Amino acid sequence: MESRFGGSRLDCAEMSVQTPRRGSGAPGWTAASSPNNSKVGIDPLKADAKSLADHITTDVSRAQVYTRDTKREHTNGFRPSTFFVSAGLRSDRRVSVTTFLYDIMNAMHVRRFWVSGIVLAATIALFPFSFHAERHLETATRVEGSQAETVRQELANRFRSPFVDQVALVIQGLPPVDSQEGGQALETIVTGLRDQPGVSGVVSYLDSRDPIFLGRGGGTFVLVGLTSTDGPVESLVPKLHQLASLLENQLRGRYSAVNLALTGEIPLNFDIRKASADDVRRGESLVIPATLALLLVAFGSLIAALIPLAVGQLAIATTLAITGLLAQRWHLSILVQNLATMLGLGLGIDYALLMVSRFREAISAGNQGPAASLIAARQAGRTLLVSASTVAIGFLALLTVPISEIRSIGIAGFLVAGMSVLLTNTLVPTVLALLGPRIDFGRLPFTPKLDAHRAARTGKRWRQWGKVIVAHPWLALFGAGIPLLLLAWQIRRLDTSVPRGDWLPRAAESVRALHTLRQMDREGVVESLRIIIELPTDSIAQTDAGWNVLGRVTKRLASDPRCGRVISITTIAENNRSSLGDLSRETRRTFLSSDEKAALLEVLPASSVSLRDQVNWVRELRKSGALDLTGVPGATLLVGGIPALNADYETIIRDRFPSVMALIVGGTLFALLWGFRSVFVALKAIALNLFSVAASFGALVFVFQNGHGSRFLGVPEGTGSVFPLVPIVAFAIVFGLSMDYEVFLVARVLEARRSGLSEMDAIPEGLARTAGLITSAAAIMIVVFAAFTFGSFLVVKMIGFTLAIAVLIDATLVRIVIGPALLRIAGDWNWWPGGLRNSESGEPGMSSRGIRQRGFLK
Question: How far apart are CA 762 and CA 766, in angstroms?
Answer without folding.
Answer: 6
